[in-house]
């Protein structure tokens, strides 16, 4: 068991180091993840010290820790901030059960130290209350997370998978607590208590190891995505002379129609197509998908690729790439204004990728084209730039 504990503590410390190394670019959800990792590291480190230096002491074998009560609530806060609806009060509420248990924890610890290892009579009440709290929190929060996880923006694909995995694992812990508590109420399990307690701790520590590894995977993958993948995207040309080549690159090559074909197309409801597409962009924000293509947008709108291309070219005088990226720029500007009004740190590149961009260079080009300034200049001064009409 000590091997699992030290591996988990090491993984938590490594993940925490990755987050802290990039602290200047961290946003609030990264800070919450840091709190969770710090709590896991502290939990496992204390357990390891107790197991090594006081292996035969009964106190840490019959004493529920207070730290783990914060895990599911912090995971919920992390998801809430990814959805841009988290509030500081949520963090306080998530930590509240753990803070209450902390008082009882140190009260019992002080009693044990003063009485030379004697267990206090109220330790059963502490374990009973904290056990019920574990059961409720480890079922309530995971179910709440799994019910709302689809609201996370498409950009946070890896984070979404990590949250889903952690929520399912926490739910298993909650169900295990419920099973053991119910079993203890119905039957006398004192004979099997040591065995159950040992393997339940191994189960929990193993889950914490898995969660720490998944966090490391997500943060390393995000780092590689930001610093390497952005170089693979082609830059969008700015000049009107290169517009034809640009459209061809993006798979939106203009089609020159015959007179018969033009007459046939007069029956096409281009206005209806445009209304449907703009509903997808404004209401469903399909532009957040970094893999959105002309074909996939046409499929969602229920029209042919050709008719969608013609609609954008004739009614908006834009290529598919121009049309989608201007929506993405508006999303970035909206997020910038929101975070600035809250006084939060703003990672421009992270917002660009969140809005669906693949390339830093194309993002910068389109931002200047749409907003009339660079992203940095927009943040330095009160914006007076108007978005282009789409």
Distinctive features:
disordered C terminus, mainly alpha, 69% helix, elongated, Rhopdopsin 7-helix transmembrane proteins, 0% strand, 390 residues, Arc Repressor Mutant, subunit A
How many runs of DSSP E, i.e. beta strands? Answer: 0
Head-to-tail CA distance between termini:
61 Å
CATH class of the largest domain reads: Mainly Alpha
| Domain tally | 2
Percent helix, as a range, is 55-70%
Domain HTH araC/xylS-type: 271-381
GO molecular function: DNA-binding transcription factor activity; sequence-specific DNA binding
InterPro entries: Homeodomain-like_sf, HTH_AraC
Pfam family, one: HTH_18
Task: Please write out the topology.
Layout: H1 2-21, H2 28-53, H3 71-82, H4 88-114, H5 123-148, H6 157-186, H7 193-227, H8 243-249, H9 259-265, H10 270-282, H11 294-301, H12 305-316, H13 320-342, H14 348-354, H15 360-371, H16 375-380
Helix pairs in contact: 1-2, 1-7, 2-3, 3-4, 3-5, 3-6, 4-5, 5-6, 6-7, 10-11, 10-12, 11-12, 13-14, 13-15
Description:
Helix content is 69%, strand content 0%. With 390 residues, it is mainly alpha-helical. It folds into 2 domains: 226 residues, Up-down Bundle (Rhopdopsin 7-helix transmembrane proteins); 141 residues, Arc Repressor Mutant, subunit A, CATH 1.10.10. Helix 1 runs antiparallel to helix 2, helix 5 runs antiparallel to helix 6 and helix 11 crosses helix 12. The longest helix has 35 residues. The radius of gyration is 27 Å and the shape is elongated. It comes from Sphingobacterium athyrii.
């Amino acid at each position: 068991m000590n091997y699992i504990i030290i591996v988990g503590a090491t993984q938590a410390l490594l993940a925490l180091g990755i987050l802290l190394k990039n602290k200047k670019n961290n946003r609030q959800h990264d800070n919450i993840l840091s709190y969770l990792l710090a709590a896991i590291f502290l939990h496992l480190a204390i357990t390891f010290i107790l197991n090594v230096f006081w292996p035969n002491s009964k106190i840490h074998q019959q004493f529920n820790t207070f730290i783990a009560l914060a895990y599911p609530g912090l995971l919920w806060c992390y998801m809430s901030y990814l959805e841009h609806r988290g509030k500081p009060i949520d963090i306080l509420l998530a930590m509240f059960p753990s803070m209450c248990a902390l008082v009882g924890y140190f009260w019992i610890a002080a009693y044990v130290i003063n009485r030379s290892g004697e267990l206090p009579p109220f330790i059963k009440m502490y374990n009973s209350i904290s056990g019920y709290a574990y059961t409720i929190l480890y079922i309530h929060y995971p179910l709440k997370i799994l019910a709302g996880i689809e609201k996370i923006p498409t950009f946070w694909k890896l984070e979404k998978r990590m949250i889903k995995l952690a929520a399912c694992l926490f739910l298993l812990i909650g169900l295990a607590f419920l099973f053991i508590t119910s079993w203890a109420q119905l039957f006398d399990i004192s004979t099997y208590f040591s065995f159950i307690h040992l393997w339940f701790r191994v189960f929990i520590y193993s889950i914490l190891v898995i969660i720490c590894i998944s966090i490391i995977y997500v943060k390393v993958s995000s780092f590689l995505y930001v610093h390497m993948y952005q170089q693979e995207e082609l830059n969008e040309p700015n000049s009107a002379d290169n517009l034809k080549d640009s459209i061809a690159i993006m798979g939106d090559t203009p089609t020159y129609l015959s007179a018969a074909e033009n007459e046939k197309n007069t029956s096409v409801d281009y206005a209806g197509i445009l209304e449907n597409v703009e509903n997808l962009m404004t209401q469903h924000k399909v532009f957040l998908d970094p893999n959105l293509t002309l074909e996939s947008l046409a499929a969602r709108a229920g029209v042919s690729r050709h008719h969608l291309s013609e609609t954008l070219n004739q009614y908006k005088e834009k290529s598919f790439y121009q049309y989608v990226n201007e929506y993405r720029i508006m999303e970035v500007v909206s997020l910038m204004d929101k975070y600035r009004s809250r006084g939060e740190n703003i990672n421009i590149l992270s917002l660009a990728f969140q809005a669906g961009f693949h390339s830093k260079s194309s993002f910068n080009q389109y931002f200047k084209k749409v907003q009339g300034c660079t992203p940095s200049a927009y943040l330095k001064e009160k914006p007076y730039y108007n978005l282009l009409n789409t």
